[in-house]
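Deviation from plan, reported transparently: glucose-6-phosphate complex.
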Amino acid sequence: MTKIIDSKEWKALESHFKSIKNIQMREMFNQDEERFNNLHLKLDDLLVDFSKNRITQETIHLLTDLAKKVDLESWRKKQFSGEKINNTEDRAVLHTALRSQTNDPVYVDGIDVKPEIKKTLKQIEEFSNAINSGSWKGFSGKSIDTIVNIGIGGSDLGPAMVCKALKPYANQKLNIHFVSNVDSADLSIALSTCNPETTLFIVASKTFTTQETMTNAFSARHWLVNKYNNEECIKKHFVAVSTNLEKVEEFGIDQENMFVFWDWVGGRYSLWSSIGLSIAIYLGFDNFKALQEGAYEMDEHFLNAPLEKNIPVILALVGIWYINFFKFNTQAILPYDQGLSLLPSYLQQADMESNGKFIDRDGKRVCVETGPVIWGASGTNGQHAFYQLIHQGTQFIPSDFIMPIKSHYDLGEKKNLHHKILISNLLAQTQSLMMGKSIDEARSELLNSGLNDQEIEKLLPHKSFEGNRPSNTILFDELNPKTLGKLIALYEHKIFTQGIVWHINSFDQWGVEYGKQIARLVLPKIQGEKTTNCFDSSTNNLINHIKNKC
Ligand code: G6Q
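Because the crystal trials were delayed, the predicted structure below was used instead.
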């Protein structure tokens, strides 16, 4: 296969890059009144403005040519139809089938997966209804008022993010905790507010072997059994979400309290599966369904919209433009919504675990940069912390600003004041990052503030901003389940598209597996009596130092 960098599409982008790399966005806006109109897209209540990027319409044409060159459209079909595109694990990638709103069959190894999905959804519906109605009773006959989801990575981040984001839709009588860290502080703090008679533990683990999750699950079980002095209590207070029936039974959870999913659901794409049980309970099954419906609408858009008008494709290609041509290898996620404060870490996993790869689908070293470093925090907190570097640092950081137009909350004397302040901050940031402040503008500002010439000259370099700092703005009417579903699916497809352009498998995670493997090598040495000398001298000495202190 020809390397992507040798293709005529890549070369066309390289020469286009040379011609526009120094152009200021503010000039492009001055010269083209239609810039916003031409460089934004809408899908229902979602508006994505990508006009504040260092691109022209020509850039978009050339980038979509690149997407055609790598055959994005047929890869997209392969994914949705159940082909085993996760080639290193020989698995299909079908989180999209989990939220499909049609009865059209999807086959894996000749078997339609839809009936099993439907059956499991029914089980989730019945169970979440039973918890919410109070008909599910704990061992002492009391209803459940607290959910503790024990899981890590893909079995934690998605449900935790969604439950926090959609708290206004939750059953306000339910408390929910997400315990992921093997640090005993995490589980201990959660348990300190739990009543064993009214707490339900969801052990969420695809493999049911993950060290952190299983350690927490066994400790939670020990805590519960200690209170009741009767192992029978497990049946009423523990359920499992997993693909590993044998391990679930070994733990002592009844098969009928197990919610299955399948190897074709990747951990970081699993919130749509039984891993979303905590979501379905906390927000109610109808809201879980609405989340799925929203994602399905984005799936349909991704599958059917032409590449130039396709929101996930455009965001992916603009990302490629920065990573591979400008060499800006980082991306900030900046939600202006407190509920979405976990979105940066959720997307950090989704993107970095999917596209943090230097080996391509054919086992060869990639010839271009791949996944960027993803990070961020909710606005306006970030403004008072790291935005300095975004404005004036030596690195350029393409940033996604994300915000609902209406808030679920209102406070204070003046209606919607908080939210209007939030909105104005977002717009002020994206505008000033793009525009910057020229030396002349800074000078006249300093003059107006009454400084003398000497003081002005001293401050001028510090008070001017070169601007031209790129951002996308993603707005929606309000943060509801459907819209959140759309937003998550948008990023999933963005990640997929970039993976196709880079010719990597976005659906394996050998680095995570490696971490799981090496953790098991060190533990026995920490627990053992003898001095360790089987690793490098740094690791040996650190282990021995720790052992001396224990
Ligand atoms: C996600 C990764 C990883 C995984 C966790 C938990 O795509 O595979 O983050 O979700 O390691 O794994 P288990 O669900 O098997 O416990």
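The first strand starts at residue 40 and ends at 43. We consider this an acceptable substitute for the interim report.
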